[in-house]
TrEMBL record:
<dbReference type="InterPro" id="IPR000706">
    <property type="entry name" value="AGPR_type-1"/>
</dbReference>
<dbReference type="InterPro" id="IPR058924">
    <property type="entry name" value="AGPR_dimerisation_dom"/>
</dbReference>
<keyword id="KW-0028">Amino-acid biosynthesis</keyword>
<keyword id="KW-0560">Oxidoreductase</keyword>
<dbReference type="InterPro" id="IPR050085">
    <property type="entry name" value="AGPR"/>
</dbReference>
<keyword id="KW-0521">NADP</keyword>
<feature type="domain" description="Semialdehyde dehydrogenase NAD-binding">
    <location>
        <begin position="3"/>
        <end position="141"/>
    </location>
</feature>
<dbReference type="InterPro" id="IPR023013">
    <property type="entry name" value="AGPR_AS"/>
</dbReference>
<dbReference type="Pfam" id="PF22698">
    <property type="entry name" value="Semialdhyde_dhC_1"/>
</dbReference>
<protein>
    <recommendedName>
        <fullName>N-acetyl-gamma-glutamyl-phosphate reductase</fullName>
        <ecNumber>1.2.1.38</ecNumber>
    </recommendedName>
</protein>
<keyword id="KW-0963">Cytoplasm</keyword>
<comment type="similarity">
    <text>Belongs to the NAGSA dehydrogenase family. Type 1 subfamily.</text>
</comment>
<dbReference type="GO" id="GO:0003942">
    <property type="term" value="F:N-acetyl-gamma-glutamyl-phosphate reductase activity"/>
</dbReference>
<keyword id="KW-0055">Arginine biosynthesis</keyword>
<dbReference type="InterPro" id="IPR000534">
    <property type="entry name" value="Semialdehyde_DH_NAD-bd"/>
</dbReference>
<comment type="pathway">
    <text>Amino-acid biosynthesis; L-arginine biosynthesis; N(2)-acetyl-L-ornithine from L-glutamate: step 3/4.</text>
</comment>
<comment type="function">
    <text>Catalyzes the NADPH-dependent reduction of N-acetyl-5-glutamyl phosphate to yield N-acetyl-L-glutamate 5-semialdehyde.</text>
</comment>
Amino acid sequence: MIKVGIVGGTGYTGVELLRLLANHPSAKVTAVTSRKEAGMKVAEMFPSLRGRVDIAFSTPDETDLQACDVVFFATPHGVAMAQARELLEVGVKVIDLAADFRLKDPAEFAKWYAMEHSCTDLLAEAVYGLPEVNRDAIKNARLIGMAGCYPTSVQLGLLPLLEGGKQYVETTTLIADCKSGVSGAGRKAEVGTLFAESADNFKAYGVKGHRHSPEIEQGLSLIHGAPVKLTFVPHLTPMIRGIHSTIYARIKPEGRDVDYQQLFEQRFAAEPFVDVMPAGSCPETRSVRGGNTARIAVHRPGNGDLLVILVVEDNLVKGASGQSVQVMNLMFGLPENAGLDIVPLLP
């Protein structure tokens, strides 16, 4: 049985980890930290876990995380890089759900997250947590920087078009028009996510620049083997969970005769958590609510020179905690779907 520690168990990604791991056949949560809620039973804060999680929050200082086999950091940016080294030195694997180990360029990290990176040697070692791209590297890794929620949807949506240097679409004019539910902002008091502010409303944000932009471009450029440029515009929608990404790609002359439906179906045929929808489909966010599956549909309106790729995922599951459990399974040689065979909730 894998002994799991969770640093920062009171946020949305933390409680989602607890929910998923409560049913995992080969993992047991042995420690959950929270400075503010130390001593409180997890199930007291989250009654949905009553009878499933019988453990109390403890302060990081009082918690023996070094006795764990793997530690998840479901914390604000900057926490994991301060604690990862001492865990790695005693053989504990580290999975960070924040951004500390996503961007390979320390200067880019400092620019977008307003802090200097404190362990650039570990940053160079960290493997990016997107299984559909880095599965083999993840299996042998001891430190994972999980993919962000928006970047997961956009990279999966463009993967078949760019992988291996394919020249099917223009790589300097890509557009990702993305929408997310309010849980993506985290479990904190903030005016913009108050019910009276976010309900019955729809707005764009981060149009001048968003911290997920360099992550997406970094990932796509590595997938393609050459620089890729993308315009990314996120939006906040009045729902709790879900991401819907609409991606636009201009077809090059070399790609005019490609069967894109077949291309996507073949690329993801063996992927347990990517579902390519039938031709003409428009996937809905509610079809993935609570599940670890990303659903993708590819359209070519009028058989013209523009591809429209639709991607939906649950931002807390495939976009965060579920994908993290998927990565843990790979790191420990478990079936990739262990603890993740969840039918999404509907309605």
